[in-house]
Design goal:
14 helices; eight-stranded antiparallel beta sheet; disordered N terminus; alpha/beta; eight-stranded parallel β-barrel
Length: 549
């Protein structure tokens, strides 16, 4: 793995972590931890985008809306379109909703019926096939409450978590089905629920992560959500950044529990990231607009956070996943999170998470070998938990049916970015930034990424974040190529682009039943291993070529 020179304090922590793991394995009277799968040696290539990179995050209060028997067939089709992924059930609702094995299933309680819905959904997506490495096509993260108890939530505690697992999770995922569980997520955003009391959080983390509470299941932590700040503030160790600089200490506590219990999907530390917010009083950096959403400065903050935390996770023998993200905190912003710009941004975000390049040292990850295992886009209610009838959060990738019918969910604009990435980038090798040349020096240079498929095809993604068309010259391999385009679509014909209400890929849309009619790429002739390409405002394209005859 390409890494910068190890810092002495990191090396010491890594050694301490290794010793703790060894001590746990050798302690008399304790069961030996399960063997941690050792991945096969990878070829000498650039960055790898693994299977199961794409993912969705859904609040517990919306399980019925997405996975009840009426909604499930379309939701399953939407998941199948993406081939493989991780379905996280959690968010702030997991710290607010108790599990009750005997309660009537409502929006305010987690019940065995909810877990049965999740299990049925995974079964339906996985019956077709498993991925090339034997994992289920879709795995799940199941969040349970871990926060300081209050008068309004006296039920929160280790015993509640144990009951959730023994009376809810274990019966729904017995024996072989347990491999579908990527992890039990302990609490949501502890930097908010525990505030400045880091010691209390670390104490609870050790208690909950112990097998006496969470049993044999993989566990996931710390799930922190940094304040929306420029990367220069994140880089300042004296700045108030919640738990950003406490990750090493948190992972010192968590890694000895997480690594030995890694499941089929491996062990990872999880992070949250939002570039903007619905409200931004007196904080202009947070204000949501399509221009700010697609700006380089907010992606620079993502790069800094993802690279720093992925690097620290690796020092502890863990992977890293951006397990909750969206276009703006507080459930998104109208006219920004629910329009075509959200798809343009989401596609860029996935690449920046697969290859975070710290803005202060972009050369530190030139080969994209420090990276996230994946990204989960969050889905919630528009205003408050327990009121799905009020409508969808603006940032939802998949919109649920808010009516009493609770029928088929439907693809929102951001879903199309997930679809394009899942089908053309997920499971590839040799990820690296690429260079394209705009025809006009005044134009913003589109973002570009190159990669190679397992079959040897070369792919180039080009993303135009400008509000006007841009013509570029792109390098290619071979005498002929195919191109698929993700394009803003204005159903009213008013000429809207970044703020268009819909998105199409190759002129096609996802059907009402969630099925995808398939891609319809155009032939793109090349001259001298390059070609000229015009991208519409907010448009992204993937060009596939091969040197084989």
């Amino acid at each position: 793995m390409e890494r910068h020179r190890a810092r002495p304090w990191r090396t010491a922590r890594a050694l301490a972590c290794a010793l703790a793991l060894a001590a746990a394995a050798a302690a008399p009277g304790t069961a030996a931890p399960a063997a941690v799968p050792v991945p096969a040696t990878a070829p000498a290539r650039g960055g790898r985008i693994p299977d199961h990179f794409v993912g969705l995050s859904i609040e517990w209060s919306l399980v019925e809306r997405y996975m009840n028997p009426s909604a499930r067939p379309a939701f399953v089709n939407l998941l199948r379109n993406l081939h493989t992924g991780i379905l996280r059930i959690g968010g702030s609702s997991q710290d607010q909703m108790p599990f009750d094995a005997t309660a009537v299933n409502t929006n305010r309680v987690i019940t065995p019926e909810d877990l049965a819905y999740v299990r049925s959904t995974l079964d339906a997506t996985g019956k077709v096939a498993h991925d090339s490495h034997g994992k289920p096509r879709w795995g799940t993260v199941l969040g349970t409450a871990m926060s300081p108890p209050t008068d309004g939530k006296p039920w929160v505690g280790p015993e509640h978590a144990r009951t959730f697992l023994t009376q809810g999770v274990a019966p729904a995922f017995p024996r072989k089905a347990a491999k579908d569980i990527a992890g039990i997520e302990l609490g949501n955003e502890p930097d908010l629920s525990y505030g400045a009391d880091l010691d209390r959080y670390l104490g609870d983390l050790a208690t909950y992560a112990d097998p006496s509470v969470t049993g044999p299941f993989p566990v996931i932590a710390p799930n922190t959500s940094e304040d929306i700040l420029p990367w220069t503030t994140l880089a300042d160790p004296t700045a108030a950044t919640r738990y950003f600089h406490d990750w090493p200490q948190i992972l010192d506590t968590a890694a000895p529990f997480m690594s030995p219990r890694a499941g089929a999907f491996g062990a990872w530390a999880s992070d949250h990231f939002y570039p903007l917010a619905r409200t931004c009083a007196n904080k202009p950096y947070r204000c949501a607009s399509t221009t700010s959403l697609l700006s380089d400065e907010h992606l620079a903050s993502l790069d800094y956070e993802a690279y720093t935390h992925a690097d620290e996770a690796a020092e502890h023998g863990l992977g890293y996943r951006l397990e909750e993200t969206g276009t703006a905190a507080n459930r998104g912003a109208a006219g920004v999170s629910d329009v075509a710009a959200s798809a343009t941004y989401a596609l860029s975000l996935m690449f920046h998470t697969a290859c975070p390049r710290p803005p202060d040292r972009p050369e530190a990850n030139a080969s994209c070998t420090t990276a996230a295992k994946g990204v989960n886009f969050h889905n919630a209610e528009v205003r408050a938990f327990f009121h799905p009838e009020e409508g969808n959060a603006y940032y939802n990738a998949i919109d649920y049916d808010p009516t009493e019918t609770m029928g088929a969910p439907r693809a929102a604009p951001l879903y199309y970015a997930m679809l394009l990435f899942a089908r053309f980038a997920q499971g590839t090798w040799d990820l690296r930034p690429a260079t394209v040349t705009p025809a006009s020096a005044q134009d913003r240079t589109p973002e570009a990424w190159q990669l190679t498929t397992e079959s040897g095809e070369h792919r180039l993604f080009v993303i135009n974040k400008a509000d006007h068309p841009v013509r570029v010259t792109v390098p290619l391999k071979g005498a002929q190529a195919e191109i698929s385009r993700m394009t803003p679509y204005d159903p009213d014909g008013a000429g809207r682009t970044l703020d268009a209400a819909q998105v199409r890929i190759d002129g096609r849309q996802v059907a009402d039943d969630g099925t995808w009619p398939g891609f319809h790429p155009a032939v793109l002739p090349t001259t001298g291993n390059r070609t000229a390409l015009t991208l519409a405002a907010g448009e992204a394209a993937v060009v596939t070529s091969s040197t084989r005859p």
